[in-house]
Structure formats: structure tokens, C-alpha cells
Amino acid sequence: MGGGEQRQGPTRERRRAVWQRRFWEHTVRDEDDLARHADYLHDNPVRHNLAQSVRVWPWSSFHRRVQLGHCPPNWGRDELAIELGYEGAE
User: What is the pTM of this model?
Assistant: First the structure.
């Protein structure tokens, strides 16, 4: 190799991207759309088995939304599943 050239070794190839490969851009249309996206984000720790319930995930904005009256304190996965139309939700 000449001056200034560097080889990319296996370490670089093993690095993982910060953002997922599949993503989309979405402009929030109104308050209801914002609430749906917030609900989706609140459920992420539960969906990825990091918490049994959104209520026990300490880093969630869910707690602030409950304080402000935007979410009921008993909000949870079943309520979200029904709203989004997932089968098997009761």
C-alpha cells in the first residue's frame, strides 16, 4: 500500500449500524397521529422483552404522559393491540 492508504480489516466489517436498515420517514399529521406513535414507542421495551410492562420501564416518556393526563396509568399492551387491530387482543 502506498502513503496514506489503509486497509479495512475485519473489525470494521463487524460493526453494526446505529439505525436499522428498514426505516421510513413520517410526518406527524395531527394529535391523534402523535399519540399513536407515542404508544408505539412506549410499547417497544415490552415488545423486545426488556420489560414486562411499560409501567415498569423507568426510562419511558410514558410516566410523564400519565402525569400530564395524556395516558391512563393502566395503559398497556392489550389496549394498544386492540387499537391497532391485532388479532387475539382482548
Answer: 0.56
HEC profile of 11-73: HHHHCCCCCCCCCCCCCCCCHHHHHHHHHHHHHHHHHCCCCCCHHHCCCCCHHHHHHCCCCCC
Nearest to 81 by CA among 26, 25, 36, 22: 36
| More confidently predicted of 85 and 36 | 36
Work out the mean pLDDT of the chain and round it to a whole number.
Answer: 77
pLDDT at 24: 75
Please give the pLDDT value at position 33: 94
How many Å apart are CA 17 and CA 34, to the nearest integer? 27
Does residue 76 sit in helix, strand or coil? Answer: coil
Cβ proximity of 59 and 38 under 8 Å: no
Cβ neighbours of 65 (radius 10 Å)? 17
